[in-house]
Specification:
The protein is mainly alpha-helical and about 120 residues long. Helix content is about 50%, strand content about 5%. The chain has a two-stranded parallel sheet. It is flat, with a radius of gyration of 19 Å. It starts with a helix and ends with a helix.
């Protein structure tokens, strides 16, 4: 189990590896950048974020083994081989399940269920 960027970097180093999303699906995640409320250099922080999500940076990053791009223009600029190898197609992305936040009541219910399963 690994993330797409790690698989791409290993492949570029010559490792015999292929990154796949199983037919049953996989866990998806999203990283993000944020600026704290009282940041002393907000303009610089916003410039950094703009750079990190730019088409140019995202396209270059994915080609060097970085994670899947968040900029749709960067995805459009990728060749079909990269899209298939990185599982960036709509078909692959639609098989991802993103973890969402659950309150304490749901966590408690899951924990009780898990304790019951372990007791069997």
């Amino acid at each position: 189990m690994m993330w797409s960027g790690q698989a791409a970097a290993m492949k570029q180093e010559g490792e015999p590896i292929e990154y796949v999303v199983p037919n049953e699906g996989a866990i998806g995640w999203v990283d993000y950048w944020g600026v704290v409320k009282n940041a002393p250099n907000k303009d610089l922080a916003f410039k950094f974020i703009d750079y990190m999500i730019s088409k140019e940076f995202q396209e270059d990053w994915v080609k060097k083994g970085g994670p899947a791009p968040v900029n749709s223009e960067a995805v459009k600029a990728l060749d079909e081989k990269t899209i298939q190898e990185m599982n960036l197609s709509e078909e692959s992305l639609n098989k991802l399940f993103f973890i969402s936040y659950h309150g304490e009541d749901v966590k408690r219910e899951w924990n009780e269920l898990w304790q019951e399963v372990k007791a069997q």
